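Homework help board

Subject: predicted structure for assignment chain

Our instructor gave us this sequence and asked us to write out the predicted structure in token form, then describe one feature. I got the tokens but I'm not sure how to describe them. Can anyone check?
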Amino acid sequence: MIPADETFDATWPFAARFHEVPATATAREPSAVLRISRTVFRKMLEGYPEAAHRLRELIAARADQGAHDMENVRDALAPRNRWR
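My token output:
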């Protein structure tokens, strides 16, 4: 579940490889979806560098958390040393 004050973008991890990635999201309360073109988004980031920095930090934190989660899964699935 995505907290009410956060955004959801199912395509950003795949943006470099695919133009569109189908995704389904179901809102539990009245919501709006806004699609912004890449050009407009880049202009917005250029015009608001503080927001661009905040967005970069948010994406970096999510990537770090995802990497940490994958390490935990790897460690949980790794064969255990039976000789200890």
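Reply (TA_rk): Your tokens look well-formed. For the description, you could write something like this. The chain has a mean pLDDT of 79. That's the kind of observation they're looking for.
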